[in-house]
Input
Amino acid sequence: MKKLILSSSNPHKINELRSILKGLPIEVISKEEAGFGDLEVVEDGDTLEANAKKKALAMAERSNEIILADDTGLFVDALDGAPGVYSARFAGEDCSYSENNKKLLSALSAVTEGRRTAHFETVIAIVWENGSVQTVEGRCDGVIGYEAQGDNGFGYDPLFIVKGTNRTFAQMKDEEKNRISHRANALRKLREVFEERL
Output
């Protein structure tokens, strides 16, 4: 059984990864469980890929296990792609999910229905035991609603209405979201990579 350290303390991400990789000979552990809870990486890259690689490589300097790190952004067309790489701190450092959502709704207050298109993107960086780095990415298209709807999920989930549905991620059960989300798409590719590799 190989160990895989996820460079995150987000319980949602840990559970999602465990569920996607279920059945493979991999034990997924968080950075806390690996003893690296003190590792903080400044995400100052100008792309999701740069941030994901930076986080994974910082952890790889401390461990010889397989390391995984990801970065996710919400890209809103009417805002020229913002919040993008700043999605987690759109409303400022240490802001809450609801503060980010409030700022996004405010920024889009004058934007009409047909122009509220957006997409989520996730990039996952893998650092293998030999130090080589690989990335996979996933995307999900949709539009930004006018108000928060649903109480599942996290981040911008209550505002993001998934293309082809009339529901936000926050209105979906985990199983459904895990089939169609940007992260799910990236994780599916990740699983394929692990199946080939292992």
Q: What stands out?
A: The mean pLDDT is 94.
